[in-house]
Amino acid sequence: MFPLRWLAALLALAAVAFAQPLQLDPAGRIAFIDPSGRLATVHPDGSGLELLTEVGRRFQFPAWSPDGDKIAAIGMEQGIGTVEVFSLAGEEPLELYRSLPQPPFYLYWSPDSQTVSFLANHPTNVIGLHLVSLSEGSDRVLLTGSPFYWTWAADSDSMLVHIGPPGSGSRLGFTEAGDDTLVENLDTPGFFQAPVISASGRYVAFANVGSGGARSVILRSRSGGAGEPVERELRHQGLTALAFSPTEDLLALMRPPQAAPFSFGPIQILDAESGRLEPLVDDVAFAFFWSPDGRFIAYLTPFDSSGQQASLGDSQLVSLQPARRFSLKVAEVASGDIRELAVVIPSPMFLRQFLPFFDQFALSHRLWSPDSDALVMPLLDAQGRSQITVISLDGSQQVVAEGDTPFWNVR
C-alpha cells in the first residue's frame, strides 16, 4: 500500500494533467471528419486517433496550416456557420467567424500561417472573400463576386484572384491583402477556375478570352521580375485546369481536345523556361494532384456504367452520380511511366464538393503524404460507409478510420 500522502500527491498530479489542454505531435497526421461530424486526427497506420471536438457541432473540410501546427475547419451548429482554428500544441480553439445568414464554405491558409482566408455568402447575393489575422482576430471582407477563385503569393501579402464568369465584367489580377483594388490587372479571364503561381514566384498561369472568343491558356512572367519577359500561349477547347509543380516551374494542364462544357481530358506539362510542351497522360483525367516532391502526378479516370474506362463521349461524366468508380493512377513526370494504384469509389461529399473544384482545393488541402509515398482518400466500403483510406504507391491500402474529407499534414 502507498502512504496516504503519496496517494494524495498522485491524485493532485492527475488533476493537473487532466486540466491541461491536449497536446499532440502533428507530424504526419491526417485530419478528417468522423461520422458524427467531429474533427479528428489519426496517424497513417490507424494509430493515435484523437477527437478535437464534441458531438453536437458538425465540421467539414479541415485544412492544415502551412507550418503544420494548426487546423482550420468550417463548423455548423443550429444553422450557424463558423470558422475555427484548432492548435495541436495545446492552445484553446479560436473562433474566427460566426454567422447565421452568411455561412462560410471554403477556407485557405496564407503561406505564413498567420491569416485564414475563406469564402462566405454575402448580403449582395454574391460571394465574399474574408481575411482574418490570427494575431488581430478581426474579420474583413476584401473582395466580392461570383464565382471566386484565388491563390496566395509566397510572401503572404498578395493574392492572385479570379472573380466572375468568363468575359466582360470579370476580374483577374493581383491584390494586396490590405487593399481591395487590383494592383496588377492581368487579362480578361477565360474558361478556367483557379489561377496559379509558379514555385519560383516568377510565372503565373491562367486562361483568357481573346478576339473572336478564342480561348487560350496563358503562361506569363510577372511584371517587374528578373530576366526577359516570357509569355506562352496554348489554345484550348472547353474549360482548362492548371497546377504548377511545387518544386519547379512546370505547369500541368488538363484540357479537352474538343469543345466541351468541362475540363477533363489529357494532361500535358509545359516548361515555363523553355516553352517545351510534352504529353504526360492520354487518359480522360478528371482531376490531378502534384506530389509534394514534384516527382509524381496522381489523377483519377472515371469508369462508365459498364465498368469500362470512360471516354470523352461519355455524357454521364458530367452528372457525377453517387458511387461512381474511378481508377486512381500515378504518373512519374520525368519518365512518363504510369501505374494504376486502385479502383476506388469516393464518398459523395468528396465526389460532389471536392473533385469539381480540385484545382482550388489542391492549393489548400492535400491528399498526398509529406513524403510523397501515399495518398489518402475517403472511399466507400461494401456497406456504403465512407472510410479514411491510405493508398501507398505500391498499391497497398489501409483503412485508418471511418469518416470523410481527409487531408494530410504538410510535415
Please, could you describe this protein's structure?
- The chain is mainly beta and 411 residues long.
- It is 7% helix and 45% strand.
- The protein contains three helices and 31 strands.
- The radius of gyration is 22 Å and the shape is globular.
- Mean pLDDT is 88; it is low at 1-22 and 314-320.
Number of helices: 3
Rounded to an integer in angstroms, the radius of gyration calculated over CA atoms is: 22 Å
What is the residue-mean pLDDT, rounded to a whole number? 88
The share of residues in extended strands comes to 35-45%
How is the biggest beta sheet arranged? 4 strands, antiparallel
Please give the number of β-strands: 31
- Give the strand order, joined by hyphens, for the main sheet: 3-2-1-31
* Overall geometry: globular
**Low-confidence runs:** 1-22, 314-320
Structural class: mainly beta
Percent range of helical residues: under 10%
* Terminal Cα span: 46 Å
Compact description:
By secondary structure, this protein is mainly beta. The chain contains three helices and 31 strands. The strands form eight sheets. Strands 3-2-1-31 form a four-stranded antiparallel sheet, with no helix packed on it.
